[in-house]
Amino acid sequence: MFWLVVVTLIIIGLAFLLLEILVIPGTGVAGIVGFILIGIGVWQAYEYYGPTTGHWVLAGTIVGTVVVLAYSLRAKTWRRVALNSEIDSRVNIIDEINLKPGDVGKSISRLVPGGKAVFNKEYVEVRSMGEFLDQGIDIVIEKIEDHKIFVKPK
User: Fold this and answer.
1) Which of 33, 86, 126, 146 has the most CB within a 10 Å radius?
2) What's the pLDDT tens digit per position in 122-154?
3) Cβ count near 85 (within 10 Å)
C-alpha cells in the first residue's frame, strides 16, 4: 500500500513541474515544490523497498518526466488549447475629408472619457477632453491627432 504514496508524490510533483513550466514561468515556488515532492517520492522508494526498486523508480520517474514534458511541449498539443480566432477589427482610420475639427455629432455611448459617437452618419471612437459625457448629447470635434478624435460638449 505504501507504493501508492510514492506514486502519488511523484505524480503530484510532476504536476507542479508542468504547472511551473507551462503556466507559471520562471523559477518559482511550484517548480521547487515539484522537485521536492519528486525527490521525496524517490527517496521513499529507496527507503522502504531497497536500492533495486529505488533505481527502477528513479529511472521510471526520469523517463516519465521526459515523456510527459515532450508530449506537453509538442505543437499539436498547443494547437488544441490555442486561440484560433483572428482579429479583423481596425483602429480608427479617420477620413480627414469627412471629419475635421468643428464638426458636430452625437455621442452614442457614454464617454468616460472614451466611447462611440456618430458624425456625418459615420460611427467612430472618440475621447472627451477628460470629462465624462452622457449618451445622446451633442458634441463637437475639438482636435484630431494620432488617429484619435477628441471632443467636447456643444
Assistant:
1) 126
2) 888 899 888 888 899 999 999 888 778 899 998
3) 5
